[in-house]
Each structure stands twice: as C-alpha cells, then as structure tokens.
Amino acid sequence: SLVPVSELLKHAEAGGYAVGAFNCNNMEIVQAIVAAAEAENAPVIMQASQGAIKYAGIDYIVALARLAAERTTIPVALHLDHGTSFEQVIQCVRAGFSSVMIDGSKLPLEDNIALTRRVLDVARAVGVSVEAELGKIGGTEDDISVSDRDALFTDPEEAARFVRETGVDALAVAIGTAHGQYKGKPELDFARLAKIRSLVKIPIVLHGSSGVPDEDVRKAIGLGVCKVNIDTNIREAFVAAARQVLADNPKEIDPRKMLGPAREAAIGLIREKIRVFGSSHKA
Ligand code: G3H
Ligand code: 13P
Ligand code: ZN
Ligand code: NA
C-alpha cells in the first residue's frame, strides 16, 4: 500500500540521502517511476500536481499509483504536489493520496501558517503526511534580480517560526531553484540553506530540481534536503524519445510505438536521478 512521504523522509534524513519525487500525468510515467525505482531498489515518491489531476482524473491517478505500489516490494508514496486550497487537499486525502503538499507560499505568513495548520489537523487524523512551502520558488520565466532574492527566498527565522507553529512534516524552501528549464546555471544560496537547516529540524524539500547540476543537488542533500522534486527533466526525456520515433517514422500511427520508447527514456532518466540522490539500494 502507499506509504506517507514522512516515513520515507525519516529514513532519508537518518541515512543522509534524498528520496526522488517524480511528477506523473499518465500511465506510462507512473510505470516508468516505479520501474526505475525497482531497478535501483529505491524508495520513491510519485507526485501529481493539480494540473495532472485535472488532466488524468483523480481516481485514475490513485488507481495507477495503488496498482503500482501493490505490484512491487519497494515503498511507494503518492503525494499531491503544490495543492493550493484546503478543498484540493481534502479531495486528495479522500481519494487515497498518502501525502499532500499545501502550498500557501503566495499568502502572507500568518495566513500560510493558518492554512497549513488547518490541513495538518485533518491529515494527522488519517495518517497522511504534509509538506508546506515558505518563500516563493516561482518559475524560470520570472526574472529575479539580486535585490529581489532577499524578498523571495525563504527567511531562516521565519522558517523556524513556521515549523514551530505548524508542526508540518517537511518544508519546501526557496533558495534559488525554479520550476522549468533554466536559462543559465541556477545559483543556489547554500549559506541560506545551511542557516535554515540549523534552525529547522525537519526534512527540507528542493523544488525545481530539473536543471540543477548534480554536484549542487548533492551539496543540498548534504545540507538537509531529503526530498528532491523532478518534473521537467522527465518531460524532456519522454517527449524527446516520442519526437524521435515520429521523426524517424512520419507515417507511424500506433501510439505504443511512440509511448513505449518514451517510457523507456523516462526510466533511464529517473534511474540516473535516483543514483544522484543516493537512494539506490535504500528500499
Ligand atoms: O511544480 C510544478 C510541477 O512541475 C507541475 O507542473 O502544474 O504543469 O503539472 P504542472
Ligand atoms: P522541475 O520541473 O524544475 O523539475 O520542478 C519540479 C517541481 O518542483 C515539482 O513540484
Ligand atoms: Zn514544485
Ligand atoms: Na527546474
């Protein structure tokens, strides 16, 4: 059965590695995530965004994840990625997600704390773990000037207060990563991450990790990151392989001929990430 993310992160924290959290939208990507984790003998987190839920349907996502978890001995979690409302979180809990993220990062601090607490009250009662976000992670299209960084990045003292007042299981922080593809090389604020970690004794989550150099991801893991989110790199690998099939065979009409290689490419990419995160052989 699906396990809460908190359970996986407890072991990751103790073992000094991170668990990969991979976004899924369809059957092929769900299968790729579990096949890759199985091949690496790694615990794994499948996560679905609100957009993924809208695309595939909440019951399809849960059914796929449950089946995948039933068919394997490695621990698998199903997590809501960037839930932005109490209603969305509750729908996922009811549908069978084992973990949720409540993203109140766009709200004023007090409101983010209040919303996260409200989610925790319900999630605790049913054994679902909760990730929250403090600081604004944003997208690579947002042009962030040096002076903006202080306003957008997670404030370590605020993080300490946030965790103390909410009791949340894991915290996503803004330290210079962004969702999507980077234009140049991302500049991570490792000093800030170290400061946050010294004040916050719960697992830290790194979002926007596609495009972050492997050595920077490893460094972040060394500083307390226990969950690393990857979406864009899976999309790139999946679609590149599908595109190649269509380019080589313009008359191809069998979706399996396109999606099979796409799934294989996703497996390869996810296995590489799992190795970087140090979670191979930790299942
Ligand atoms: O955090 C963003 C994830 O990559 C999900 O993206 O909202 O397009 O599904 P999405
Ligand atoms: P990337 O798309 O940059 O990998 O970010 C994924 C993410 O943070 C999902 O929450
Ligand atoms: Zn994210
Ligand atoms: Na990214």
From TrEMBL:
<feature type="binding site">
    <location>
        <position position="133"/>
    </location>
    <ligand>
        <name>Zn(2+) 2</name>
    </ligand>
</feature>
<feature type="binding site">
    <location>
        <position position="207"/>
    </location>
    <ligand>
        <name>Zn(2+) 1</name>
    </ligand>
</feature>
<feature type="active site" description="Proton donor">
    <location>
        <position position="81"/>
    </location>
</feature>
<feature type="binding site">
    <location>
        <position position="103"/>
    </location>
    <ligand>
        <name>Zn(2+) 2</name>
    </ligand>
</feature>
<dbReference type="GO" id="GO:0006096">
    <property type="term" value="P:glycolytic process"/>
</dbReference>
<dbReference type="GO" id="GO:0004332">
    <property type="term" value="F:fructose-bisphosphate aldolase activity"/>
</dbReference>
<feature type="binding site">
    <location>
        <begin position="229"/>
        <end position="232"/>
    </location>
    <ligand>
        <name>dihydroxyacetone phosphate</name>
    </ligand>
</feature>
<keyword id="KW-0479">Metal-binding</keyword>
<keyword id="KW-0456">Lyase</keyword>
<dbReference type="GO" id="GO:0030388">
    <property type="term" value="P:fructose 1,6-bisphosphate metabolic process"/>
</dbReference>
<dbReference type="Pfam" id="PF01116">
    <property type="entry name" value="F_bP_aldolase"/>
</dbReference>
<protein>
    <submittedName>
        <fullName>Fructose-bisphosphate aldolase</fullName>
        <ecNumber>4.1.2.13</ecNumber>
    </submittedName>
</protein>
<dbReference type="GO" id="GO:0008270">
    <property type="term" value="F:zinc ion binding"/>
</dbReference>
<feature type="binding site">
    <location>
        <begin position="208"/>
        <end position="210"/>
    </location>
    <ligand>
        <name>dihydroxyacetone phosphate</name>
    </ligand>
</feature>
<feature type="binding site">
    <location>
        <position position="179"/>
    </location>
    <ligand>
        <name>Zn(2+) 1</name>
    </ligand>
</feature>
<keyword id="KW-0862">Zinc</keyword>
<dbReference type="InterPro" id="IPR011289">
    <property type="entry name" value="Fruc_bis_ald_class-2"/>
</dbReference>
<feature type="binding site">
    <location>
        <position position="180"/>
    </location>
    <ligand>
        <name>dihydroxyacetone phosphate</name>
    </ligand>
</feature>
<dbReference type="InterPro" id="IPR000771">
    <property type="entry name" value="FBA_II"/>
</dbReference>
<feature type="binding site">
    <location>
        <position position="82"/>
    </location>
    <ligand>
        <name>Zn(2+) 1</name>
    </ligand>
</feature>
<dbReference type="InterPro" id="IPR013785">
    <property type="entry name" value="Aldolase_TIM"/>
</dbReference>
<dbReference type="InterPro" id="IPR050246">
    <property type="entry name" value="Class_II_FBP_aldolase"/>
</dbReference>
